[in-house]
Amino acid sequence: MSFEKNPYYREVLHRLEEANGYLNIPEAVYQRIRTPGRSLSVTVPVMMDDGKVEFFQGYRVQHNTARGPTKGGIRYHPGVNLDEITALAALMTFKCAVVNIPYGGAKGGVACDTKKMSRDEIKRLTRRFTYEIGFVIGPESDIPAPDMYTDQQVMAWMMDTYSMMKGYSVPGVVTGKPVCIGGSLCTDVATGIGLVEVLTHSVEQLKLKMDGLTVSIVGYGKVGVATAKYLTALGAKVVGVADSSGAIYNPKGLNWVEVSKHKRKTRAVGGYSEAEDLTIEELLRQKVDILIPAALEGLINCDNVKDLNVKILAEAANNPTTPEADRVLRERDIFLVPDILANAGGVVVSYFEWVQDLQGYFWDEAEIIKRLKLIMTKGFKKVLDVSKEKKTDMRTSSMIVGVGRVAEAISVRGLYP
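RESULT FIELD:
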């Protein structure tokens, strides 16, 4: 099958095969899990500000619907392609299952460079892309959300376009939209809160105390900033951060508020007066208790994994560790909090938003955070229990939990017709 030639998807299949070594899923069910359900490729014509029409390539992949409607982000990035989107859709299936929310996995995106586009061009791109994929999305079928280089405004345009197509307002078609049109509180910080919750349990598992632990965060966007904020509140010391332009390091600790102000002003963390400028690879070699990759895929690889000097690696980004690096982490006994567990806080609060939209009743911030922490804690404890029972690493145990739940749903539902 063509998807098996996809290098991104082969990594997903590798994880799936490892999990199945413990699960022994029936062959027909296993093939259903490893095969993407629907892949849509669309051409998106957009009238640019200069009057010319440019054509962009867009995608939406729905991996599996056994546990419910599919859920997953929309990314705008020059590197977007069907291979990447397919792999990320599959990981979303397992992520939703590992924290036990009733979704399957999806992902979407458009190959474009929003840094070179005006706000109006991005709006026209969004509206046309929504129209092109409109027949496969919906609150009962597939619910998009923000991802790389998309935000609340993009979701608002998507929701409005879909609503115009339907002839009435449909707030539940997307999540991560502004509160004034049915968005939920806490969406901007959900991934960070969820990550810190599972990190707190990880620290306890290693019989450490959060107060005084040192942290480096590679990727200082929305997730990285929220994570720095909440870890600092618990007494941890963020000593290094990085973005696409470079890294900064101060062994005495960084003030996350001041670093954020500096980045807003200069659009980069580099050049911050209270820290030393480093390359990202130099930052990865610094000794810290917790390392948090919160950027693109493949950051931790065979070229740098042996240089890591950390106790805990918590994957805030999707698929930031290559399979080769994974094996080294196991050999070195570095405690891994895998992506499908570590960064699941975002999709959990997306689920809350969807539920609130369907009910037409909205929760306060305290209720959302309470429910989020409860789900993340249950997810962590389940994965940890399986890890101990099967005597395996947290990555494999998280896949055992997630894949096992998907397989159970497929088996119970059966094959139609």
